[in-house]
Design brief:
The protein has about 650 residues and is an alpha+beta fold. Among the domains are: about 140 residues, Glutaredoxin (3-Layer(aba) Sandwich); about 210 residues, no CATH class; about 80 residues, 3-Layer(aba) Sandwich (Glutaredoxin), CATH 3.40.30. The strands form 9 sheets. The protein has a 5-stranded mixed β-sheet. The protein has a 4-stranded mixed β-sheet with strand order 22-21-23-24, with helices on both faces. β23 and β24 form a beta hairpin. The termini are far apart.
């Protein structure tokens, strides 16, 4: 599509141009799979009248929020302060020094042009007033990024209870709409369901709400029952009608959440897990091992066309008994009906359909949908984002430990990608933010890239017991400490200081659709601190978590923080298994992780292993080199036992 707006990339050249021409700057932030970004692109930015006005009065900067999360965060915070709204496309007018003065999300062309004209008029008539407002707004944005210095008197249990009051007990998740999966919260609930420090009732309520929510997600229209995977969010409170874009970060984390809960008692979770993994491998895996970022919501110019069905269409594609099977599972005349006779398939809570027959029918629909007579696929965003691929490595590594039919090679390919391709050329110690198939500029990674990749390497170590992954995690954490750590606040900045840093240097503190980078750093510091016996990292992690949660009145934006808090409060349990040969490592790893073992860390060691802490040394295997299991609580070990089950019975959370 022709776009007559003279867009410039975000960087020092664009801002220098604005200063030289004494123009205001229009910063427009979007992303490839964003439906309303495409609408505004078509209606306004491709319109000659709108483009002429924008080019005449502004230096126009286009930002991909996925490539520059630091820019997105600070301008989003500014727009939310100004309008109490947020979303994409995010449009912000700024002074040539970057400070914002006006903002909006999607606007129709007429309203857009009238708003821009008003800003131009105010800037021309009273520039001092505009600059005073910019200063006031910038101060407010800076304050949003500061860690709390005066915590409120609220305990972790009170924050948990306050959050629980927002749970939707009918549909799962949080009350209201739109509704996001927020798998980070589901993982926290899984951890909370085993905790000893939440009192007698909260663990059970955590378990009940997590299973209810995950069940609603798996049955809902937000789940693509035909092709696998999950959409970004539901527009209604019942998880029926999704906003149809599929994002890697959502599906990666849903793999983690499903892996945590999928067991023999919940076969529907196992099926959703294997479907999601198959979808990611089929649609997103690239030759170098990394995953693409997203699938658009739109195809053939309409949102959701690829995923919608009608009863007549299903009857033309399937045999009568197959239609009956689909109807029994999804309710074609009511339960799955949306509007204008269109169906968004969602499972009934109860159905007597044979799962094997239903699986065969859905596979038949998927084959047709992607065949020569089927549907036009949604657009693919093929950029490879380091942090999202790290989340995928985390999810896949966790899934392989619980489910033997998911090959270990899947997360290992991602691990190799993160270790080699996701690096700044000529600076292999630094992560890069993105890889593009067609090349392009290289930007150093952000806090989330470093934090999530550290956790990915730690999960790969847990799945393989290869200590090289542990050393990779340590090296990357040391780089993050050097480039991103703020010793004054004891938190991590989003980006290293540089010439294209936004008008405010920001931090990622709140857990949302992805965990906050600082919570993830706290998790990595805690695990590395024990696995490598680095006391300073353990103490830093404790300080970060205590500072964050001291003033929290709810855990709605602190799921990852909550997980780390429970790990610290319940105590760090390391299960050290001494073996006589490397041949035992895989069998021991499978024996331990074949069941849910919350709050534990596994280390398989043998005489001569390098890089193990002093307190792990001297552990001897059993007769003929058979594994011997030592359960250790923060470095203090009990007498050894001979089996995984005996070891688990000695763990505090068993």
């Amino acid at each position: 599509m022709h776009n007559p707006v003279r867009w410039l990339p975000y960087g020092p050249e664009a801002w220098a141009k604005a200063r030289a021409e004494r123009k205001l700057v229009l910063v427009s932030v979007g992303y490839s799979a964003c439906h309303w970004c495409h609408v505004m692109e078509h209606e306004t930015f491709s319109d000659s009248e709108a483009a002429h006005f924008m080019n005449a009065h502004f230096v126009c900067i286009k930002v991909d929020r996925e490539e520059r999360p630091d820019v997105d965060q600070v301008y989003m915070e500014a727009v939310q302060l100004m309008t109490r709204q947020g979303g994409w496309p995010l449009n912000c007018i700024a002074l040539p020094d970057g400070r914002p003065i006006w903002g909006s999300v999607y606007l129709p062309k007429t309203q857009w042009l009238s708003s821009l004209q008003a800003i131009v008029d105010v800037e021309s008539e009273d520039p001092d007033r505009v600059r005073r407002y910019a200063t006031k707004l910038t101060t407010a944005v800076e304050a949003m990024g500061q860690p709390s210095s005066q915590p409120e008197a609220s305990s972790f249990l009170e924050a948990f209870d306050s959050w629980a009051e927002s749970w939707d007990l009918e549909h799962g998740g949080r009350m209201g709409a739109p509704k996001f999966p927020l798998p980070c919260q589901l993982e926290f609930l899984e951890r909370a369901s085993h905790s000893k420090c939440l009192g007698p009732e909260r663990p059970q309520s955590a378990r009940t709400h997590a299973l209810h929510t995950l069940g609603a997600l798996v049955r809902g229209g937000i789940h693509d029952h035909v092709g696998g995977g999950f959409a970004r969010y539901s527009v209604d409170e019942a998880w029926h009608v999704p906003h149809f874009e599929k994002m890697l970060y959502d599906n990666a984390q849903m793999v983690s959440a499903l892996a945590a809960w999928a067991d023999e008692a919940h076969p529907e979770f196992i099926e959703a897990l294997t479907q999601a993994v198959a979808f990611m491998e089929r649609e997103w895996r690239l030759d170098h091992g990394g995953f693409c970022a997203a699938l658009d919501a739109d195809s053939e110019g309409q949102e959701g066309t690829y995923y919608l069905w009608t009863a007549a269409e299903l009857e033309s594609l399937l045999a009568p008994d197959e239609v009956a099977c689909v109807d029994s599972a999804f309710g074609l005349n009511g339960h799955s009906l949306w509007e204008r006779g269109q169906l968004v398939l969602r499972r009934k809570a109860k159905s007597d359909v044979d799962p094997r027959n239903l699986k065969d029918v859905l596979r038949k629909l998927q084959t047709w949908r992607d065949g020569p007579d089927g549907r036009v696929k949604p657009g693919l965003d093929d950029k490879v984002l380091t942090s999202w691929n790290a989340l995928a490595a985390i999810g896949l590594a966790q899934a392989t430990r619980r489910h033997a039919d998911i090959p270990l090679e899947l997360p290992l390919r991602l691990g190799r990608y993160l270790r080699t391709h996701a690096r700044v050329p000529h600076r292999p110690d630094l992560l890069r933010r993105t890889c593009h198939a067609e090349g392009g500029p290289v930007h150093e990674g952000f806090a989330e890239d470093y934090a999530f990749t550290v956790e990915a390497f730690l999960e790969l170590h847990q799945s393989t017991q290869d200590r090289e992954w542990l050393q990779e995690a340590r090296a990357l954490m040391a780089t993050a400490m050097d480039r991103l750590f703020d010793p004054e606040s004891k938190t991590f900045w989003n980006n290293a200081q540089g010439s294209d840093t936004p008008f405010v240097r920001s931090r990622s503190m709140d857990d949302g659709v992805i965990p906050s980078a600082n919570a993830s750093f706290a998790s990595g510091l805690w695990k590395l601190g024990w696995a490598l016996d680095i006391e300073a990292w353990r103490e830093l992690s404790r300080h970060m978590v205590q500072s964050r949660l001291a003033g929290a009145t709810t855990l709605a934006e602190s799921g990852k923080w909550g997980q780390v808090h429970l790990d610290q409060t319940d105590g760090f349990t390391t299960v050290v298994v001494a073996v006589g040969s490397d041949g035992h490592r895989q069998a021991v790893t499978q024996a331990w992780w074949s069941k849910r073992r919350p709050g534990t860390w596994l280390e398989v060691v043998r005489a001569g292993d390098a890089h193990i802490p002093a307190w792990m040394e001297g552990k001897s295997p059993g007769p003929e080199g058979q594994p011997r299991w030592y359960v250790c609580q923060e470095g203090a070990c009990q007498l050894p036992v001979d089996t995984a089950e005996q070891a688990w019975n000695l763990c505090p959370l068993s």
